[in-house]
Amino acid sequence: MRIAYYPGCTLKLTAQNLEAAALASLRALGLVVEELPRWNCCGAVASLAEDDLLHQVAPVRDLVRAAERGADRLLTLCAPCYNTLARANRLMAEDEEKRKTINLFMEEEPDYAGQVKVVHLLDFLRDDLGFEALATKVVRPLTGLKVAPYYGCMLLRPKRVAIEEHPTLLHRLLAALGAETVDFPAMTDCCGAYQILGHEAMALDASAAILRSATRRGAQALVTSCPLCDYNLGARQPDLRDRHGDLPELPVYYFTQLLALALGCAPEALRLDLSPPGCRRLLAERGAIAAAT
Amino acid sequence: MQFLGTRSAAAAETAHKINEISGQNVGRCMQCGQCSGACPMFATGSLPVPPRRIMHLLQLGHVERAAVLETAWCCAACHACEVRCPRSLDLPKVMEAIRQLTLRRNVDFVAPGAVPRAVLASAPPIAMVAAFRRLTP
Q1: pTM greater than the 0.90 cutoff
Q2: Which of A42, A103, A142, B114 lies 20 to 30 A from A28 at CA?
């Protein structure tokens, strides 16, 4: 059983914190994954037009790379990459006509039929370790920290690629880490995603609604697995407050950062230098990290 | 409701293209409005025409009218509408079909050069790849 790891473009640039914390956590848990030696951008979004098979080529090529390494699973950390790869994989497994066309188009590649399973770190942790076992490995529990688990869209929709039907995995992960999870109505709402470039004001308003929903329920922090959500909800928080002055500051972490922290990984693995300043401040106030880490 | 008239043969053909590109039969929509209630963009209050009315325009063959409205262009394909649709219609695919009919005429909705430099410098690559995939030809 081999697990190939697909990072995706953003994890090598603005979301290095998502990746560094995840890899440090996996090492701490003794789980071995191997990054694909060669991979390309998955296309960031799934192709939605029935007659547009060309855009399926990028994600399918990544799946072919995993298959030729002998991997039976492809592990992702980034929620949109998970979604795009999983949807392309379903297409290759289920639509014979399109599979033939795509395989013919990529004649330099071996034929692919959807045999590699695309997984996200959250369902990987559930299946390969289990949250009870994870809880036993926690050395620095997040006791008393009220965290809003934000699932967003890409892990749950559309249903055929959802990591689970009803959102529980982030809750269970955070509970295993000792944190107090805060349910909030906007847990699966959309932050506006890439419309931050097309309809900035609307995306900022959609993001503000999510932060407001979480803070009203008393959250001290919010976790996500998506670099786009992290950007809209975290990095753009000052712009959100320009439009919504009464919105309190809410630190936004990648779930892997809190995982690495609780597992006792070196604070440098959290790469808090890439997160908004409030993220470091909250952990320093709690004494979880030194103020200057 | 405003009377939108009967559809011409040309309008019917364009409407048929929407069904072809999306793989969805917009005629199945029964106008219940669940999609509008679920749409996070409509919930911001800045979107005048909700997805339900776009579906109605398409049913009447008014594809061009639907394409100039903001609804399809501000869709983030979050699939909240699809989850709630009692007719199991994949609305993000319908919105994509509306965009494609315009983009395939080589029209940019977002000009990459017009995105502010500060945003380009800070935005994750995934924001750019995704936005340009959905909003440029």
Answers
A1: yes
A2: A42
Residues A155-205 have pLDDT tens digits of 999 999 999 999 999 999 999 999 999 999 999 999 999 999 999 999 999
What is the ipTM metric for this complex? 0.95
Distance CA B137, CA A269 (A): 40
Q: How far is CA A145 from the centre of its chain?
A: 21
**Contact check, Cβ <8 Å, A205/B73:** no
Nearest Cβ partner of A10 from B96, B109, B124?
B124
For chain B, say whether A15 makes contact (Cβ under 8 Å): yes
- The helix (H) or strand (E) run that includes residue A34 is strand A34-35
Task: Assign A147 to helix, strand or coil.
Answer: strand
Q: How close, in Å, is residue B41 to chain A by CA atoms?
A: 6
Residue in A203, A156, A150, A157 with CA at minimum distance from that of residue A48? A157
Residues from chain B contacting residue A206 (CB–CB below 8 Å):
40-41, 43-44
Pick the CATH number of A130-285 from 3.40.50.150, 3.40.50.11810, 1.10.3720.10, 3.40.109.40: 3.40.50.11810
For chain A, the domains span 3-122, 130-285
A265 CB-side CA count, 13 A: 23
